[in-house]
Amino acid sequence: MRVCALIPIYDHGATIEAVVDAIVPADLPCLIVDDGSGPATREVLERLAARRPGIEVLRLSVNRGKGAALKEGYRAAAASGFTHAVQLDADGQHRSEDVARFVREMEAHPDAHVLGVPVFDESAPWVRLASRQLSRGLVWLACLSRAVPDPLCGFRGVPLGPALAAVDGADTGDRMEFEPELCVRMVWQGTPVATLPTRVRYLPGGLSHFSFTRDWPLLARCYARLVGGMLVRAPALLRARRRAAAGRRSASSDWSRFGERGTMGALRFGRACYRVLGRGARLLLIPAVVWFYVKERAWNGWSRRHLEAVWGHPEGRAALGRRPGPFAAFRHYFEFAVQTFDRMALWGGGAEHFTMEHQGSEHLFALAREERGALLLGAHLGSFDMARTLARDYGLVLNVVMFTGNAERINRLFEEIDPESRVRVVSLDPTSVRTAFEIKACLDRGELVGILADRVPVGSREKPIAVPFLGRQRAFPSSPFLLATLLGCPVLLSLCVRTGPSRYYTWVTPLSDGRRLPRAERAKGAEELVRAYAAELEAACLRHPHQWFNFYDEEPAS
Known about the structure:
Layout: E1 3-9, H1 16-23, E2 30-35, H2 39-51, E3 55-60, H3 66-79, E4 84-87, H4 99-108, E5 113-120, H5 126-143, E6 156-159, H6 160-168, H7 178-188, E7 193-200, H8 212-245, H9 248-253, H10 264-277, H11 285-295, H12 297-311, H13 314-320, H14 328-347, E8 355-359, H15 362-370, E9 374-378, H16 385-394, E10 398-402, H17 408-417, E11 423-427, H18 434-444, E12 448-452, E13 465-469, E14 472-476, H19 479-487, E15 491-500, E16 503-512, H20 519-543
Parallel strand pairs: 1-2, 1-4, 2-3, 5-7, 8-16, 9-12, 9-15, 10-11, 10-12
Antiparallel strand pairs: 4-6, 5-6, 13-14, 15-16
């Protein structure tokens, strides 16, 4: 999580230095967006940037409005690698010392839009208070909830990924109407809201750029558009809240309750179709994917949220090409179906029809020559079966740790297809230490142990490790990484993606050379391994967003 301070400014040269000086104790880089200020304010900003390290000034050539300045600031901050921004005004109304409190609240709720709840003193004009009440009521109506306590407060903590997703997904306003519109659109897309009381004061002779003749019509039109949009979204919002009341947390984390779809007969039928029709049997995937798309509404939502998160990153937007629409989940499912079909074709003796490219395999061959075991970590991205192919083709012994209770039928089918495979399955039992002893025995024999390390096993008593992943904190299982620090075995990441029809590319990346750590250092070492694993996996997800097949939300560790 990387946080910066973000301050839009227009001709507030008299107050900006005091605002910046007050946030110094928070020790944050500061991005000031100059929205076409005059020479006096420009001179102050130049002097401020020269005097204080960590201050960057982004200058807009003409005044475009506070909303336009904030949007430029969000994009610039995200491009510089920041994931969150504490946004505050330059006019001195906000208590800048509260920046540190906003940072702590964002760390506690990294997925949330942290909104300041203004605590006014006697300096607040009554007309401003009355207008705020009207804005609050209209925003509550647009959200069908009171999640947003004050949509006009400019002091807030902004998660940049969700904010940019909301901005890029709609034609948002450029002036004072932007901040309440952003609140509503982020609620619509499912971004949680956290709140933090903060003092607000109106300084005597303070400079305000709010114009009743210009900004009230813009606000009125914005609220009318948002309330109209609520009418379209109301059924979906109400359904989502009913699901949440029924226990969304347990539903999203307990992925094992979604049993494997289909039957052994259907899988054998698919294999028989491949033998008769060859690659043309892929046409049969279309009705199957349509059926899943219509039936599995929960999966549609998870797929859409993943693709929206990818869209929040520049690399993800380049890979997707356009913002995920209503049928984005269909393409996601179809990619999964194609790769499942290719697995059957590969294991059914059709390897000659595939082009396999791999990089980094020399690390596996070196371990085999040294007769040294290693953990080969994978993920629900692409096809881990290509690692099985390498094991078969090069005489490596690979033990795959699996939650077989959820994939028993398809694993049984693959055993029927290739009974001479050099792949062994270690059944994962998260309630027992037996699995850990089996893994150690495999490593002692100098064999590879493959684990999909991006999903916390159901029933596991381990405490997950939450690290940044695609703009939010995501929980990863700690046990594979702690095991590596305990046993002192090398850790490698192996991922494989489909690059075209019947074309796959596998790469192996070392994450650890296998140094055994003392007990006091294992937790830290495991977290460093998780961060390295998550960073590599995130980069792969951004390059190949439709090949991430973990259709389940993981809650961050508590």
